[in-house]
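[job 4417] fold queue: 2 targets
>>> target A
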Amino acid sequence: MIKRLAFLLVLTALAAVAAGCGGTGEESGAGGGGGGGSLSLVAYSTPKEVYEEVIPDFQKTEQGSGVKFSQSYGASGEQSRAVQGGLPADVVAFSLAPDVDKLVDKGLVDENWAKSKYDGFVSTSVVVFAVRKGNPKGIKTWDDLTRPGVEVITPNPFTSGGAKWNVMAAYGSQIQQGKSEEDATAYLERLFKNVAVQDKSAREALQTFASGKGDVLIAYENEAITAQQKGEDVDYVVPDETILIQNPIAATSDAKGGAREFVDYAKSDAAQKVFAEKGYRSVNPALVDPKRYPQPKGLFKIDRFGGWSAVNDKFFEPDGVVGKIEHDLGVATG
C-alpha cells in the first residue's frame, strides 16, 4: 500500500509539471511581444503614406506585436490644437517643433521630448518648387515666383506648419543672397500677391495643384516626390537657397504602453529607409543618398533667425510680418 501511495504521488507530480509547461507555452504565444493594446497617432498631413508602411512593420517586431493603431492626419497647427482640446493621442508627429512645445505647456508632452535621439526629429526635407511637367514657365529661382502671370499655390501659414516652412524659406532666400530684412519682407509682399489659393494643409495644397490650379506649388521636397510616385505630371526644382525642414515626433505624457517603443522604431534605420523611399531626407546622415538628395548650396536652418519661438513672434502673430501681409490681402489669420 505504501508503494502504491508513493507511485500515485509521483504520477501527480509529473502531471503537474506537464501542465505547468503546457500553460507557460500558451501564455507566451498569446501574449508575447507588445502584448496588444491600442495607440493613437496624431500627425500632420504629409507623412500618411510613410506611417501606413512603418506601422505594419512595427507590428511585426516584438515590441509592436499585437499593438493596434488609430491614425489622424491634418494641418500641423490644427492637430496640435485638437490634442490640446482633448483629442486622444499617444504619439504626435508634427511639422514644427513648436506644435509639440504647445503640448508641453499644457502638460501633455514631457518637456525633455527633444532630448532624445536625433534631437526629437523623425524626418527632414527641404522646400522646393513643384511645377508642371517640363516646367513650361521656366521657374528656377525665387524671383521667378514673383513674375507677372505666375500663379503660386502655398498653404495658409496660420493653420499649416508646412506653410511656415515655405514662408521662412522664401524670406531666408533673400537674406542668403545678401539682401536686408526690409528687402526680404518686400519680397514676401510681392510673393503673396501671386498666391492664388491658401489651403489649410500642405496635403490639401498638393491636391489643389494636382487638380490643375496654379503654375507652381511651394512644398516639401517629399510632397513633390509623393506626387510623382502617384503618377502626377509634375517636376520639381530645388532652389539654391532653401531651408532645412525638421519634423518632430514624441510620445505624450500619459501614452499607453508601446508608444515610446514606436517613437524609437520610427527613428530606426529600418523605418528611416521607408521615409527615404517616400521622398524624405533621413535624420540619419548615413542613410541620405547624396545623388538623390544633393545638398543645396545655400541651405540654412530656422536657427538662422533665432529659432521658432522668435520667428513665430516676429512673423506669425496676427500683427507680425506675415499677419500684416495676409490682413492686407483679406486672408484669415485666426
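>>> target B
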Amino acid sequence: MNVAAVLFWSWALVAGRVQSAPDPLAVARTQFERGDYRAAITTLSSAIDANARDAQLWHWRSRCYLELRDYARALADGERAITERPRDSEYRRWLGRAYGGAAEEKRSFAIARKVRAAFEEAVRLDPSNIAARRDLMEFYVEAPWIVGGDKRKALEQVDAIARADAVAGHLARAIFLVRTNRLDLAEAEYQHILDNRPNRIEPYLEVADYDESRGDAGRFASVVEQAARVAPADLRLTYYRGIALVLANADLTEAERLLRLYLASAPPRNDWPSRADVHNWLGRLHEQRRDINAAVDEYQSALTLDPNSKTAREALRRLKRVAP
C-alpha cells in the first residue's frame, strides 16, 4: 500500500468513516427485545457458523426458540451453551426453563426431574442468583413429590431469598403461601411489598396479578397506578389499565382501546401477558356489553392461541347455554 493510501485510511478511521461491522449478538438482542425471534435466530445462526464456541450465541438462540415454544431446539442450544460455559448459573437456569416447557408439553416425569436438576445446579453455581432460587422454589412447591417436589425445601429457598432481598423475599413467600392455600398470610406478604415501595415495576405487577385473581378491583387499580409511577413507559401498563377498567365495568371503550393497543405494540414474550390473555379479557368486556357473538369470537381466538386456556374453554361452554 502506498503512502497516499495509508494516509487516506488513517484519516478515514479518525473521521469515523470506516466502521466495524455491528456485533451480531447486540443485533440479535435488539431483535429479541422487540419480539422478532425468527430474525434473531437468523442473526445468531450466522454468527454461530463463524464462531461455534461462543456460549452466548447458543444461549440466546436457545432463548429465542424457548419464546417460540420450540422446546427441542431450545434444549439442544441450551445444552450446547452450558457445554461451552459449564459454570454459568444463568445458562443453567434458562436451560431449566426450557426443560420445564418440554416437560409440560410432553407430560414427562423424566424431563421434569431435569428441570429440578438444572435449577439446583444454577443455585449451586451462584447462591446469590435470586431468580434461580425463585425458579427452584416454585418447582419445589408445585411439582409432585415423585419428581422432587418438596415444600420444606421450597421454604428453605424462600428464606434464602429473603435474606438476600426483602422485596424478593416477600414475593417468594407470597407465592409459597398461595400455592399452599394460605391466602390470608399471602395477602399480608403482598401488602409488605407495597409498603416497601420497590423501584422496579415487576413487584407491583405480581401484586396486581394476585389482586386480579382475587377479584380485588379497587386495589388492582391502585397498584397499577403505583407501577406507572415507577415505569410510566412500560407497555404492559396498557394491558393492566385495560383490565382495571373491565374489572370496574367502567369506560369499556377505553378498556378495549388499551387492550388492543397492547395486542398491537407489545412483543410476544413468555414473561409478559399473553395474547390469549388479552383475548380472554376482551371476551369478558364484550360479555359486559352483552354482545355475546363478539365475546365468543374473542374466547375462540384465545383458545386458538392457547388450547389449554381454561378461562376461554369455560367461557365458551357458558356462553353456548345463553347464546340466541
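[job 4417] complete. Note on B: The two ends are 84 Å apart (CA to CA).
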